[in-house]
């Protein structure tokens, strides 16, 4: 956007001639896939074969974890973990997360107990988790939001002190680190997403990692109905296998993960530099000693200072052909599908209610150009500068 140019919502020319999506998968060269695809199709072994096994092996090597089990989705991983653990009663989790986190709880006939998040990191607050524990609690379910790892040390201590299971929804966090250790090594198990919006993608899929052999064994059974190979089912599992073509794609994108994480961190820094000094914008605080994947680059909008609320900013960006997402609104405790089946630890969840209405994710993907980051940032600045006029247009 040229300096002094009106925002598109006020009649100016859109900054982008084509839609700039919120994200795109960063794919390997087709030449790195075609030989494997041909091999899979010609062999007829389109599932339960070598590429998924190799993907699991490479995941173990990269993350330094003892076990990795490929599945059809992160959600199926969470569902099967809770099923295999034979949990009962209540699960403590954040409400500020994607719907799949909570859905995996209610699919297991467990009761969600929502606790608030930290106002700076947007991650589940360990102190509130500790206070929410009752004799009905069986599991703590943390979420590494936007690729920022939870306070795994504090949550691990709480789980151990109270003899509770601890699982992480690591959907956003393939490549995140706590100190020098990769996410994937914490709690009883972690479940990664491999959908197209993630840094490591299998087109669709998930990966459960754990250092516990029995948990891994149960995951391998669970992805095939719970069948131990003799048509005898130890527990009620799912059809949750990953296909060989998905495994091949996952393997190839895993080999790009370090480069992609570093590039996203660089682009996030450029966003912050370009938006520096713009009133009313704050960012998710990244704790010292951790590395985020920046699965999403999210800004918090203070309406009074910025001049517009989050929703109006998103609408104005859409006129520039920029897709921004309201991650995550509505929060889980406001989703109609829960219908009062949960309890709150702190009933009003004030931080969750605030951030879910003020956080906006801007376009970010591993091969997004620096020029496009600067153009998006210029649009945000221009929208702020013209906020009083835009308020007259957007009621």
What brief labels describe this structure?
eight-stranded mixed sheet; 2 domains; globular; Aspartate Aminotransferase, domain 1; alpha/beta; 14% strand; 395 residues
What structural class results from the helix and strand content?
alpha/beta
CATH-assigned homologous superfamily of the largest domain? Type I PLP-dependent aspartate aminotransferase-like (Major domain)
Shape: globular
Number of domains: 2
Provide structural commentary.
The chain is α/β, with parallel strands linked by helices. Helices cover 38% and strands 14% of the residues. It is built from 14 helices and 14 strands. Strands 1-9-8-5-4-2-3-13 form an 8-stranded mixed sheet, with helices on both faces. The mean pLDDT is 96.
Summed up, what is this model?
The chain has 395 residues and is of the alpha/beta class. It has helices spanning 31-43, 50-63, 74-84, 99-106, 126-132, 152-161, 213-222, 244-254, 257-275, 303-306, 310-319, 350-358, 370-385, 387-393, and strands at residues 67-71, 90-94, 111-115, 137-143, 165-169, 177-178, 181-182, 189-193, 206-210, 281-283, 290-291, 297-301, 343-344, 359-362.
SSE layout and pairings?
Elements: H1 31-43, H2 50-63, E1 67-71, H3 74-84, E2 90-94, H4 99-106, E3 111-115, H5 126-132, E4 137-143, H6 152-161, E5 165-169, E6 177-178, E7 181-182, E8 189-193, E9 206-210, H7 213-222, H8 244-254, H9 257-275, E10 281-283, E11 290-291, E12 297-301, H10 303-306, H11 310-319, E13 343-344, H12 350-358, E14 359-362, H13 370-385, H14 387-393
Parallel strand pairs: 2-3, 2-4, 3-13, 4-5, 5-8
Antiparallel strand pairs: 1-9, 6-7, 6-11, 8-9, 10-12, 12-14
Helix pairs in contact: 1-8, 2-8, 3-4, 3-7, 9-13
């Amino acid at each position: 956007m040229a300096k002094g140019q009106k925002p598109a919502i006020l009649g100016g020319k859109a900054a982008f001639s084509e839609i700039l999506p919120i994200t795109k998968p960063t794919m390997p060269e087709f030449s790195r896939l075609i030989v494997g695809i041909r091999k899979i199709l010609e062999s007829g072994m389109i599932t339960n074969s070598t590429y998924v096994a190799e993907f699991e092996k490479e995941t173990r090597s990269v993350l330094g974890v003892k076990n990795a089990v490929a599945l059809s989705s992160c959600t199926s991983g969470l569902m099967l973990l809770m099923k295999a653990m034979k949990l009962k009663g209540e699960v403590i989790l954040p409400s500020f997360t994607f719907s799949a986190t909570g859905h995996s709880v209610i699919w297991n006939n467990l009761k969600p107990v929502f606790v608030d998040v930290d106002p700076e990191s947007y991650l589940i607050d360990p102190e509130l988790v500790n206070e929410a524990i009752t004799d009905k609690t069986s599991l703590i379910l943390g979420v590494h939001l936007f690729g920022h790892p939870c306070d795994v040390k504090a949550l691990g201590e709480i789980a151990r002190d109270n003899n509770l299971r601890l699982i992480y929804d690591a959907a956003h966090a393939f490549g995140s680190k706590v100190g020098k250790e990769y996410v994937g090594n914490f709690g009883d198990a972690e479940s990664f997403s491999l959908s197209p919006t993630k840094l490591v993608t299998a087109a669709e899929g998930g990966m459960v990692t754990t250092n516990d052999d029995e948990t891994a064994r149960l995951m391998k059974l669970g992805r095939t109905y719970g069948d131990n190979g003799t048509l005898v089912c130890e527990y009620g599992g799912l059809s949750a296998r990953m296909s060989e073509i998905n495994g091949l794609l996952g393997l190839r994108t895993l080999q790009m993960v370090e480069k992609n994480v570093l590039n996203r961190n660089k682009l996030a820094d450029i966003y912050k530099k370009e938006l520096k000094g713009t009133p009313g914008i704050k960012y998710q605080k990244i704790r010292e000693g951790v590395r985020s994947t920046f699965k999403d680059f999210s800004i918090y909008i203070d309406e009074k200072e910025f001049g517009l609320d989050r929703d109006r900013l998103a609408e104005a960006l859409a006129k520039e052909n920029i897709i921004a997402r309201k991650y995550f609104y509505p929060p889980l405790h406001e989703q109609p599908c829960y219908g009062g089946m949960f309890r709150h630890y702190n009933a009003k969840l004030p931080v969750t209610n605030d951030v879910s209405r003020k956080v906006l994710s801007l376009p970010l993907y591993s091969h997004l150009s620096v020029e496009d980051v600067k153009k998006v940032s210029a649009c945000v600045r221009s929208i702020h500068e013209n906020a009083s006029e835009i308020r007259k247009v957007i009621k």
